[in-house]
Request: fold
Amino acid sequence: MLRERYRGLKILGQGGFGRTFLAVDEDKPSQPYCVIKQFFPQAQGTNNQQKAEELFQQEAIQLERLGKHDQIPELFAYFSQDHRQYLVQEYIEGQNLNQELSQTGAFPEDKIIKLLENLLPVLTFIHQQQVIHRDIKPENIIRRKSDQKFVLVDFGAAKAATRTALAVTGTVIGSAGYVAPEQAVGKPTFASDLYSLGVTCIHLLTNIEPFDLFDVSESDWVWRDYLTVKVSDRLGQVLDKLLQQGTRKRFQTAQEVFDALQLTVKPTSQPDLELKSARKVNYDQLEQLLKAGKWKEADKETAQKMLEVAGRTQERRLRDEDINNFPCEDLHTIDQLWVKYSMSRFGFSVQKKIWEEVGGKVKTSKECKLGDSVGWRKNSSWIDYDDLTFSLQAPVGHLPRIGRMSMFINDQRWASLFLSRVKNCQLTSQPTPQLDIELKSAKGVNYDQLEQLLKAGKLKEADRETANKMLEVAGRTHEGWLDTNSINNFPSEDLRTIDQLWVKYSMSHFGFSVQKKIWLEVGGKVDYETEKKLGDRVGWRKNGSWMNYDHLTFSLQAPIGHLPRVFTSGWGGGKGGVLALLLSRQEL
Reply:
């Protein structure tokens, strides 16, 4: 028992500086777990002993400064007892990434992206506190069991990055294989932590030790040779830059890495949904179909589950009373699954919002207006079920169409009746919460007006403002078009700002990075033929011809990637493939 308060339970580990125990804090009513580190150095010699003592004390100092961050263990106590030093800190329940790697094998790309997105803000925080961790590796990253967040541990090697400290060659600290070249000679910088994070990522991607991923004869990383999982060009480029031998060639800050990752279009990171059901209905198959983008199969599965919930599987249709008494719990689960996997494009709550905009009444006329708005009607006639658009290119609210109209009572107002139940259950479509964007510009250009237009949903005006701002950035306002040289040299800072604004306020439907994803899918070449394929996909072409600018769709009902359309035929000096040239930029 330490301090008549902390009672050790078992040894968690032992290293060069001491032993680590799992313990309980018996002073607190709940008797929570904590971690005790006992200073017990194995290093021989006076200098080594003194250095070990300094590092142990340093860990306590760093944890006291940094431990208020949610993803860094909190320091509870630091004291001496019986001529031994002890450090008591928060216990993080969960596995470290080395343990997870042993159990699950090589990490797929989406797990690496989540790791980077979750951990980079932690590095930003510690670097802002002028601290270099110096020992980032899988063993020092724990996936916390309670919320799946990554927690950075073991600050025993952390170093205060004062100007004096950075200018003086110091003791080499860190784990072999993960240490940056400059840290290996005692000159760590903030970029050293980013290098170690990059090595951690390729270790997790390949399940191969770092030493075997580096070709000494070529003085280069060969991690791609050991991949068994698919890695996108974008993530590969980020990792390559993290692993550069020269510090100036690397990302300089964690924020720069985060910015580079943000420009890739991906489903909004959301916690796993709890698939609740008042009738014990299982929604796992529906989730798998939506996750795989099998929209038609998911629509039919939705219909089957709704009939099952209502106890009407045999009758294969819902009555008035079935709709009015449909459990809100199940309605919420089905809706949240559609909203999550369609990036807020589909779902009952999305449809309810549109229904309210066209009147929100249980009337045939309002039903027709809803059908016109979500693409269920064409030329004043209802479209057959098999002629619907089962893809993300469909208008907002197009799905679910829940099987077919015959599933409901013979009432032409069936959707309105159903959506009135959605309203009563208080289902709402929430825009994905996103952080404020810092409107950076390498040329001092002001993007406030563009943000206001996008926020107000004035997409045509925003498109024109985007064109004007790009001309201003390139110094081509007088000419009124961008040449290939301007596109090749367009500042990355401004490109990111414009793209992030479009992505944020369109809920990931529009933006250059959205267009790039589609461009890569149709070939990813800088030529006119690929640009035509892109035009067909995003709705700029119809029946083999390019549409006039004023005939474009300036609303969220447009196909994904439809905007911005700033690159008209006059840009690029009339040469084809000018947009593809922009989309080939690595920043997107």
Q: What stands out?
A: The chain has a mean pLDDT of 84. The first strand starts at residue 6 and ends at 14. DSSP finds 22 helices and 16 strands in the chain.
